[in-house]
Amino acid sequence: MKYHIHILYKKVAGQAKLYLNNYDSLIQQLTERFKGENDSFEMYGELKILDFKANYAQFGYLHAEVFQKIAQGYRDAGWQGFDWEDAKREMKKLFFSKQITNELTGEIILSPRSLADADKDEMTSFIQSCIQLGSEYLNVKIESPEEYKERKNKKQ
Q1: How far apart are the C-alpha atoms of 3 and 71, rounded to whole Å?
Q2: φ, ψ of residue 5 in degrees (nearest 5)
Q3: Contact predicate 95/130, CB 8 Å
Q4: What is the pLDDT of residues 15-25, one digit of tens each?
Q5: What is the pTM of this model?
Q6: How buried is residue 73: exposed, middle or buried, by Cβ count under 10 Å (0-12/13-18/19+)?
Q7: What are the structural domain ranges in the chain?
Q8: E strands within 51-143?
């Protein structure tokens, strides 16, 4: 009997939290456990590291460029005291919320989600929505991620 085991592991902060020696040890332990039950037992494994979460570059760009410029746009429109945290909160309400429906009344409220739970595609979509709002309604020019990275690298 042949078994194939897939170990899927999410990549966290750019590094896998499972080391290959632990992976090899797991395959060995599983092989030893099941081999006694069936002499023709054979197991091989495959480690796949999944990289679904938004990355530090996206978060850095979002906080240092996007939220800062949106906050400035709100201040320019008369909302004095509006800072990047206010921008983050408002953008999450608009573009990164889940709907919660009251089953008795049908009332719907929006509950902002945590950006830490965003995958790369969700984060990209969120950033693009923020940039579009800034451009169309607040008259602010927000650099593209590439422009931001280039400017940041020139400073260093």
Answers
A1: 56
A2: -110, 135
A3: yes
A4: 444 444 455 56
A5: 0.64
A6: buried
A7: 2-50, 56-155
A8: 97-101, 108-112
| Three-state DSSP state, 50 | strand
> Which residues is 48 bridged to in the sheet?
8
Structure tokens at 115: 């950006």
115 and 123 Cβ atoms separated by less than 8 Å: yes
d(CA 85, CA 69) in angstroms, rounded, equals 12
- Average pLDDT of the segment spanning 103-110: 94
Residue 134 burial (CB count, 10 A)? 23
Q: Is 127 exposed, middle or buried (0-12, 13-18, 19+ CB in 10 A)?
A: buried
Asked if 96 and 126 count as a contact pair (C-beta separation under 8 A), the reply is yes
26 contacts 44 by C-beta, under 8 angstroms = no
In this structure, how many other beta carbons lie within 10 angstroms of the beta carbon of residue 149?
Answer: 15
